[in-house]
Design goal:
about 65% helix; single chain; 19 helices; mainly alpha; Trk-type K+ transport system membrane component; monoatomic cation transmembrane transporter activity; 2 strands; two-stranded antiparallel sheet; globular
Length: about 475
């Protein structure tokens, strides 16, 4: 009997592994949303292992597991928040891992998987197109009908993937070439500038915001050219690949732009200007931020801060020295974020635009929500409202939990939590001092913010079923 126990135990373990494999395969293949979560989690675990290796740290002794996990999450989710000093913690190997990670996360894991499949097989099957389409429009993962006129058609997914790959390579290369002489003129050694220029290009286009040198962008505070290039790169990354695809096809024909592209560009521009004006009005007399600058410097830095609070993550001034009113404005901008299917986070500018249009239509007594000669269907409005509700809930729960763990000022906790949820990367200085339990909560907030509330809801929901009946209508009192 004793000799028969080990084979039985071994067969039991094989059975358990087979069951786990079947569950993972069924979970991943059941929907693009669940596949996205599985790939994200797998990448985070891989990068956590790589960053925890002694070879990845500058001192050769390895990195604390909580710090390695948080850096991996912040890298794959292109956030930019960090619990360690990015300029001194990592070796060249560690920096290479982070550089690759932000580009993988910036393009989108589903998009990258589809690109690799396209390169290997030279074609995209229907399932691969559906998976890639889930990255270009999260509504596809929601299970409802999709208005193809508002996004990229399924037959154009292959062209979109080429646009994603080419735009990432070309934009980062051009930005790096523009930054190289600027870094040298700023006093960076030519050899160091050879790797810092591509680093800054990747961190700006992916809206991550990691800086490779001590002091961050403070040494370049007066370099308008370098800061403008970074702002332009952040803008291109934050509008989203579907918008870049639309612009590449109909650059001079605005009437042929999709509704999504129009709403994204207009709302982005309005928030950029409104945020700059708000910071200008609130911080012009703050001696710790803009108070010591002249009018030109103050105006430029206000616009730079407005661009970075949207999702860029770079900063010239100390965020912790901003007035409380400015922190509230920054939190609002970070919560909105950038464009859908972009390297930015937040609830997305189109979500804000749709809700604003719905409020305007309700005030005017209109039966439908319309924009640019198009009617926005009710299911899109419901999803927009759900995104805001889930986003606010995630931020509230994370803020309460971290505030209870750290007993830190609630304004600082709220700002850093919204920065995590919006994958922005700006910090009041709180994140670097968090204990391990709070680090894990912040990492989970980053993960949920990057995955997106629509994808999360679609992943945990049961398979959609057709409802062949409707219930009686009754109107509760609202307001």
């Amino acid at each position: 009997m004793a000799r028969n126990q080990p084979p039985a135990r071994a067969s039991g373990w094989r059975l358990q592994f087979r069951r786990v494999g079947h569950f993972a395969r069924g979970f991943a293949t059941s929907s693009p949303a669940r596949f996205a979560i599985l790939v994200f989690v797998s990448l985070i675990l891989i990068f956590t292992f790589l960053l925890s290796l002694p070879a990845a740290s500058a001192n050769g002794r390895g990195t604390h597991m909580a710090d390695a996990l948080f850096t991996a999450v912040s890298t794959i989710c292109v956030t930019g928040l960090t619990t360690v000093d990015m300029a001194t913690q990592w070796s060249p190997f560690g920096r290479t891992i982070i550089f690759l990670g932000v580009n993988i996360g910036g393009m989108g894991v589903l998009t990258l998987a589809s690109i690799l499949g396209l390169v290997i097989s030279k074609r995209l099957g229907l399932r691969a197109k559906l998976i890639a389409a889930g990255d270009s429009n999260p509504l596809r993962a929601h299970g409802g009908p999709i208005n193809e006129g508002q996004t990229v058609r399924l037959g154009e997914v292959g062209q979109l993937l080429r646009t994603v790959a080419l735009s990432t390579l070309v934009i980062e290369a051009v930005v790096a070439l523009m930054l190289y002489p600027a870094l040298i003129m700023a006093g960076i050694h030519p050899l160091s500038a050879l790797w810092e220029a591509p680093w800054y290009a990747a961190m700006s286009f992916t809206n991550t915001g990691f800086t490779p040198n001590p002091g961050g962008l403070t040494p370049f505070a007066d370099d308008y050219f370098l800061l403008t290039v970074l702002m332009f790169s952040v803008f291109l990354g934050s509008v989203g690949f579907p918008v870049l695809y639309t612009l590449s096809r109909h650059y001079w024909h605005v009437s042929r732009w999709s509704l999504h592209a129009k709403l994204t560009l207009i709302t982005t521009s309005i928030l950029f200007v409104a945020g700059a004006l708000a910071f200008l009005a609130l911080e012009f007399n703050n001696p710790r931020t803009f108070g010591g600058m002249d009018a030109v410097d103050t105006t430029f830095q206000a616009f730079f801060l407005s661009a970075m609070t949207r999702s860029g993550g770079f900063s010239v001034v100390d965020i912790g020295e901003l007035h409380g009113s400015s922190l509230v404005v920054g939190s609002m901008l970070m919560f909105v974020g950038g464009g859908s299917a972009s390297t930015a986070g937040g609830i997305k500018v189109t979500t804000l635009a749709i809700l604003a249009l719905a409020v305007f239509s309700e005030a005017k007594g209109r039966q439908s929500v319309e924009a640019f000669g198009r009617r926005i269907p009710s299911d899109v409005q419901r999803v927009a409202l759900s995104v805001v509700a889930w986003g606010a809930t995630i931020v509230a729960l994370a803020t309460i939990t971290i505030a209870q763990i750290t007993m830190a000022p609630i304004a600082e906790v709220l700002f850093d939590v919204i920065s995590a949820f919006g994958t922005v990367g700006l910090s009041t200085g709180l994140t670097e001092t968090l204990p391990d339990p709070a680090i894990y909560v912040m990492a989970l907030t980053i993960f949920m913010g990057r995955i997106g509330t629509v994808t999360l809801a679609a992943a945990v929901a049961a398979s959609s079923r057709s409802q062949l009946y409707s219930l009686p209508v009754e109107r509760p009192i609202v307001g």
